[in-house]
Amino acid sequence: MIDLHAIQTEVEKLIRKAGAIILSASSSPVHQKGGHMNYVTDTDISIQAMLKNGLMALIPECLFFAEEQENEQLTDQYTWVVDPLDGTNNFIRGRKYSSVSIALLKDKKCILGTVFQPFLNELYTAIRGAGAFMNGMPLHVSTLSFDKALVDFGSSPYYIELTEATAYAFREFLLNCGDVRRVGSAVMDCCDIASGRAEIFWEMKLSPWDFAAGSLLIEEAGGCFMMPYQDEIDLGRPACILATNAVCKDQALQIMYAAKERIK
Q1: Is the model's pLDDT at 31 over the cut of 90?
Q2: Which of 14, 87, 150, 202 is least surrounded, with the fewest CB atoms within 10 Å of its CB?
Q3: What single DSSP character describes residue 73?
Q4: How far apart are CA 55 and CA 217, in angstroms?
Q5: How far apart are CA 175 and CA 179, in angstroms?
């Protein structure tokens, strides 16, 4: 049995090192990936390589599942799920809202989550059953009602077939909640829910590295992390994501179920 608290200490060192690379990168060559507005930079690739070396040394029998590589199907083994630079388009354009995300899975469930936003020096940590924290301070979701909720969302720009469903959900949340925000880093949207900075986050399709660590932060902060179009949480494949506080859950789910009918 591994010592998760000892592992967490080492993960924090690695993720801060990754953050320092982001802060020191004045420019980075950009490469087109598949899909509309889907890019990778040399900084993404170099951070992933550094993290892979460091994380695999912590648990040598671990598998590694990350954005900038081909991945095998998720198993019950210990598995690192990593996004080396979430918010690549923000990074490319000098918008200082990008982050590094590291999750550790066992039996396909997240047991440790760490997120670092280097521009704000915010370190988010969670171990299953031990709470969620930001820079050592406990996190708790808000208790604001649906009509006052601040709603984070993602536009799923890589998936044109989701445009109408996304537009429908956006309109319904805008009309019925307090306001909406699009920040461009899905894991930071998850951190917003965990920290009570927003009450709802949704996106029609996200990849596991976008939400694995954030899902644990939300749950450990007392929130609800859901995949409304699936029977169970699956951290091994892309999915529609909905995260809320307990107060907003039911009404947010109603909108997401209605939006599903607009998917082409």
Answers
A1: no
A2: 150
A3: P
A4: 20
A5: 8
Q: Which of 235, 242, 237 is nearest to 260 (CA)?
A: 242
Cβ burial, residue 73 (10 Å; 0-12/13-18/19+):
exposed
- Contacts of residue 68, defined as CB under 8 A and 6 or more positions apart, other chains included, come to 40, 44, 45, 48, 84
Q: How is residue 247 written in tokens?
A: 């107060």
Nearest to 91, CA basis, from 122, 34, 47: 47
Tokens representing 28? 């980075």
Which amino acid is residue 25, in one-letter code?
A
Domains of the chain: residue spans and CATH: 4-138 (3.30.540.10), 146-260 (3.40.190.80)
Distance CA 18, CA 155 (A): 27
